[in-house]
């Protein structure tokens, strides 16, 4: 008889099931390249197949378009064969908003010979993290996400509705930034968000009423593991959507749900520790270290190449129009929210970069991979940034791709993307976005009918 497993050696999944015998189902999932979770539901009694490395799923499970359809070019290239999934056992979490007791486990997708699959977003981020480990460096990351809470019912033309508030009735002139009065109106729902995050061990920090009506921001605590930080952001989005759905609402992370209101951003606070745990961005001065400026220069130098990752959808670029807190220029500055790369004030030990370009619709794994790779590009090459912009916005024409189509053209020609994130990823993401762009290009929208049907 083999010796009984102790608490220290027991599989985290088996330990969880032992502590939660009521668990009915287990959701085993991967993040696709659009950041959508895809996978299967299994009875808890069947989990041994997953833990034993016998669970298969199509290699194209991580590369459908946003509508969940196969992209023919990618299917033909790889034969649409199966890959083998590795259970990331430490990621098992409950899904507390579901009626039946359900847990979830994140997976890693591998080829049949066991090699990590280069289309898997978590694999892509892991590759970048490995480069930091080789240099004895550890990124510390804290994401921030903005979202709207909207009723399920839409207007007749499909436009989402903004809910009224007791504070302002149906007036939608402003969203009552930082208003605790408005938050108290929705206290039951907001506390349910926090409870879900606690159950899922998502390190939620603050919850803030944002600028627009029914818009909120959630902040996560910093962690010294980028993969964990991206997992937290993915779980946070899932928890907010799930709890909101249970309360009869839509939580949307769409970058720009309303043309005349603020968009939803996905800001990343990042610092880097050396092998002694010292923040390499801190040199004892208010300006920060040479490595801080090199990391900023790397982000600026690679931002155009990465725009398709930071703004991956047709709607994403509406958020980046001039005049918003997300300029189409790779600017930086100290304590200035009108630039793309902000260095917040504070103690030197907490010196960090706030990357402000990505929208809340970006894939958490890909966005963080692009940011960390850009920083490393600047550090490796000892780049120097342009002068900081420390007050107000910068006028001038966009330097970054200003629309989805230009962003794809820059992305597919980028040597940086191929080298830092993988040529296999570059090819897959390119084909997904091409397929999506074809659908949008062929669609006729209501404004076109209203403008041209009679008068043209």
TrEMBL record:
UniProt family annotation: Belongs to the glutamine synthetase family.
Name under which the protein is recorded: Glutamine synthetase family protein
Keyword Ligase tagged: yes
PANTHER family: GAMMA-GLUTAMYLPUTRESCINE SYNTHETASE (PTHR43785), TYPE-1 GLUTAMINE SYNTHETASE 2 (PTHR43785:SF12)
Source organism of this protein record: Elongatibacter sediminis
Family matches, as Pfam families: Gln-synt_C
Keyword Ligase listed: yes
SMART domains: Gln-synt_C
